[in-house]
Amino acid sequence: MSVTTENPAVPAVPPTEIADRIHGFVRARFPQVEIAPNQDIFAMGFINSLFAMELVMFIEKTFGRSVPNDELRIDNFRTVEAMAGLVGRLRLAVSDS
């Protein structure tokens, strides 16, 4: 069983900035394309397994949350909005414990 943990060394990010930071990370990797927060980046054909792992690592490092195995589903990473929702759920899981 995987436990969601909080990294106290990472300052808390206000909820309004979560999607902005994720969007900035994705856009920086693909500057030649305009990517909307609700656009399926996997369907666009830019994402491979290596970049998928980079997304997980970015979320864990930037927001100080471990992504548990049961949350490593493609639907949680299809859009910026989905990733922001995942971070929000992980934050709640930590605050509820």
From TrEMBL:
Gene3D superfamilies: ACP-like. Pfam families: PP-binding. Residues 13-91 form the Carrier domain. It comes from the Bacteria. This is Acyl carrier protein. The lineage of its organism: Bacteria, Bacillati, Actinomycetota, Actinomycetes, Kitasatosporales.
